[in-house]
Each structure stands twice: as structure tokens, then as C-alpha cells.
Amino acid sequence: MRSMTNSPDTPGPYTLEELDEMGVAHDEPPEFFCEHCGKALSARCYLLLGGTAWVPYGQCQCEGAITERRREEDRAHAQAVQRRIRELQKIGIEPRYQNAILCRDDVISYLATFGEHKGNGLFIQGISGSGKTSLCSAIVRDLHDAGHSVFLVSASEMLETIQETFDKPASTANEIARYAAYELLAIDDMGRESGSEWAVSTMYRILNKRYGCMRPTIIASEHKLSSLGVRMSRRGDPERVDAILSRIKQVCALVKLPDVDYRIARNGFPVR
Ligand SMILES: [Zn+2]
């Protein structure tokens, strides 16, 4: 019996019996054979543009057909994996960190209430190798998957991309506006950048704009805030540095990672 949804208004596919039952004029179905074992396959008919189009129907279960379908599935899977890698790289997550696991309750609850933060972010502090980049990557990935516009970048790379636009003032402003516009921006490795007066003032422009627009920023650093301030003040304007630190203290909750270098610990070296 043909189902109610298969009215002649829909293109099908229909069996020969269904076409006859509906009184649809049609040509005789051609014979279809499995290209691997030669077995005859049944035919179904699509009604298109007033004509008919017969197609083979059903999957042959012979070894050749199964192998080919599996190969096709593997190819599709590999392509999907590559697409996902590129998608996450576009938001700043490198392949090494793309499968990072979120394992901190404070960060998980931060993400669970993300829409209610009104501009509040996180200051993630931990020694080199303690998992700052992994944590930032997991946060950015999960927010991206939830449909938010997010970006992860190291402080020095962010400043370099802005510096590259120096000869075109309009592009410099655009680049700064881009970093200010993400719903969430995660700045990794703060304190490793050059610390020049320009770097400090550019960092301030971005953070201050985000602060004003109540867009949350996540900052990760191996330095505690006080030593971050000392580092940035070496060559930058101390007042600007104070303004940066004050913004961070106002709107970022501290996430202190354990002083363990997991990269070294994993390889059997003594943990410092
Ligand atoms: Zn076959």
C-alpha cells in the first residue's frame, strides 16, 4: 500500500505498482544491476517535470558493494574531520588544543551562565604548561559551538596583526574594532608581548572598548597580575598599565591553575 504522503503531488520515488494504482502514465522500468556482483536491483520512479526518471533502489549486500559504501563513509568522515579542524583554526584554536577537555567546575559554571555575565570575563593564571591554552581553547570551542562569535589569540599575535596594518591607518582601526567586536575574546599569554608603549596603549584600546561595550574578555597569563603590571610598565606608560590592570580586576574572575607543568609531567620528567 502506498502511504498517504506519496500523493502524485510529490515527486516520489514510487514503485511500479504505486504508479499503476495512481493511474500515472509511465515508461517501463529499466533493469538495474549491482556493479559488483551483477545482482538485479529493484527500480523506483521519480515524477519530475511531467516526465519519469527510474533509479535503482535499495543497497546490495554483496562484499564489493559493502566495501565501497564503507570506503565512501570513511572518505566523508575524513572530510568532515578536516572541515572541523579548519573551522576551529579560523577562530584561533590550533589542532593540538581542539579536543581540550573542560575540567574545572568554576569555568563550566561560567559557560553555563554565559549570557548573563554582562561583560564579566576570566583571568586565568598558571605557570607555563599548566594548561592555560587548553582551557582557553575548550572555552572558545564550546561557545563557538553554542553559536557565539568568539576568538582566541595570543597577546603578541594580536598586536602583530595590528602592527602589520601600520601603513594604513583605516585598516589599523578596523583591526582593533574587529578584536573589540567579538562576543568573547580570549587573549592568551599576556605578558609575553613586547611591552612597548605602543603595545600597552593598543592593548588598552581593545580592552577598554570591550569593557565599555560590556563584552567579556578572557585573559590568560603565566604572571600574577602584580608581576604582569611590572612587566608591562618596563617600557609602557605606567598609567595605561594601571588602567589595564584595573579593568581586569573589575571584570575578570580569577581562575588559578595548579602550579604543575603537565607537558613535562606527562613525559616522566620531575614536576617542578
Ligand atoms: Zn552486489
Write a brief caption for the model.
With 272 residues, the protein is an alpha/beta fold. The chain is built from 10 helices and 8 strands.
Keywords:
272 residues, Rossmann fold, five-stranded parallel β-sheet, three-stranded antiparallel β-sheet, 10 helices, 8 strands, elongated, disordered N terminus
Describe this entry's structure for a reader:
The chain has two domains: 16-57, no CATH class; 92-266, Rossmann fold. The chain has helices spanning 16-22, 63-90, 105-112, 132-145, 155-163, 169-181, 197-212, 225-233, 238-251, 262-266, and strands spanning 32-33, 40-48, 51-57, 121-125, 150-154, 184-188, 217-221, 252-256. It contains ten helices and eight strands. Strand 6, helix 7 and strand 7 form a beta-alpha-beta unit. Strands 5-6-7-4-8 form a five-stranded parallel β-sheet, sandwiched between helices.
CATH class of the largest domain: Alpha Beta
CATH level-four homologous superfamily name of the largest domain: P-loop containing nucleotide triphosphate hydrolases
**Rg, nearest Å:** 29 Å
Question: How far is it from the N-terminal to the C-terminal residue, by CA?
Answer: 74 Å
What is the percentage of strand-forming residues?
A: 15-25%
**Residue-averaged pLDDT, rounded?**
90
Query: Secondary-structure element order, as H and E?
Result: HEEEHHEHEHHEHEHHEH
Low-confidence stretches: 1-6
Largest sheet: 5 strands, parallel
Q: Can you give the helix content as a percent range?
A: 40-55%
The number of helical segments is 10
| Number of beta strands | 8
Going by CATH, the architecture of the largest domain would be 3-Layer(aba) Sandwich
